[in-house]
Structures are given as structure tokens and as C-alpha cells.
């Protein structure tokens, strides 16, 4: 491939991008939060689902699009145009192409991070790490293998970009509605423990997790397909939600002496409460 793709290379890119498929191995943990929190983080146009619930997924993926990569998701159950689906608060992904493709093509909230998953007999342990902090840890004991099942749902990704001059948005945000089909070839449920830590860059500590449900270990094919695109319809009112989900607080980064003249104080890393929950 050269710096100008050939017609064949363009056709291949479009073929792979229009219908990517993934396989996953993951631990899923459903949780219940508060209606007030859900309302506070949803942009105009999206509404809370019938119950203030969400889920955490910690795992690894392979794909027919961009190779293998780590994957951690924190999502809330929401509604858009009477469709119930997932709205992502945090998505940690490893690898340049998996991160870049997802952010640019679908508008995903992908940030570069590390996820690890281990197995020992019926025990499973996984964690998600970013900037040296283990933001999420999950530990479970699986029961007997259950029958395979296929689950269908929806996911909402909002594609928006900051303006090239740095103020406001480049254009009206687009809501991509994804049809998600999970083929759970291998699955088991059980009890476990969840630890959640937050930082200024990844404020998971602000999610008031009231309780957690049954842990699930899954492995199998996961199909994601964009089936509709809509204008969000709120213009620059989406800007706070874009910055909050897609970007780190720029005040976290050191400013060079050229600008501070060595007169600034280096901010100390803030400490936030750790949430530890158990279904044991």
C-alpha cells in the first residue's frame, strides 16, 4: 500500500469497515446506579432506560478488521428514538489501528489502555489499566458451563469532532445506531468481586454504583453493524459530553518552562475514593 490507496485497496478497506466482526473473551458485570447520575451524563437526545443500570466488560478481542486488542467497556442502558441500547462512558483499547479506526469511523470513546485476563480452573481475574492505574479489577468463580446463546441489542456511538480552530464543534454530531449480535459459544455465571478506581482523566469514581449483579464469563463471535445514522440535533450543546468522554483534562499535563518560566507548581495527583463491591 502506498500513500495513495489503489482502487483495490479502497474496496478492501470499505469491505472490511462496512461489516467488521469480532470475537471476544470477557467477564461482564451488571450494575445498578442512580437515575440522577444517568440523567446527569446523558447528552440531549438520549434518555435513561427504564431502570438506572449499566455494565462493565473486561476482556480481549480478535477481529477480521484490525487484529487482536484489549477491550474494557463501561456502559449505561439508555434510549434513543424509542430504541433501548448502550451508551459508553469508558472504552479502553490497545493498539493504534483499533483505537484510531473506532474513534474516526464510528465515533467511539476509545482511549489507549491495557486489559489483562487470567484463568485458573473455575476462577477468572481481569483488570483494566490506564496511565499506571488499575481502574477496574474483576474476580469471579464460574459455575458449570451453560448452553450457548445468541443475544441481540443496540449500542449508540456519537460521532463528533472539535472544530479545527479549537472552539466549538466542526459539525452537527451524528448518532450511529449499532446492531450488536453476541454469539456466546462458551458461557458461565457466578459470583465475584469488583473494584473501581477513578482519576481526573478517567472519573469512574463519580459513578455511584449501588449494587452489582451476577457475573458472566463469555467467549464467542460478536457482530457490530451500523444500521442507522441520525443527527443528534443539539449542536455545540454536545461539546461538554465530547470533551468529558473522549479527552483527558488538559490541566493534567505539564506545561513547559518556555511558557511558565519555571514559576508554576506541579499539581499533585488527586486521590479519589475506591469502590469495592461483592456479590459473594
UniProtKB/TrEMBL annotation:
GO molecular-function term, one example from the UniProt record: lyase activity
Pfam family membership, one: ADC
InterPro entries: Acetoacetate_decarboxylase (IPR010451), ADC_dom_sf (IPR023375)
Protein name: Acetoacetate decarboxylase
Organism: Aspergillus lentulus
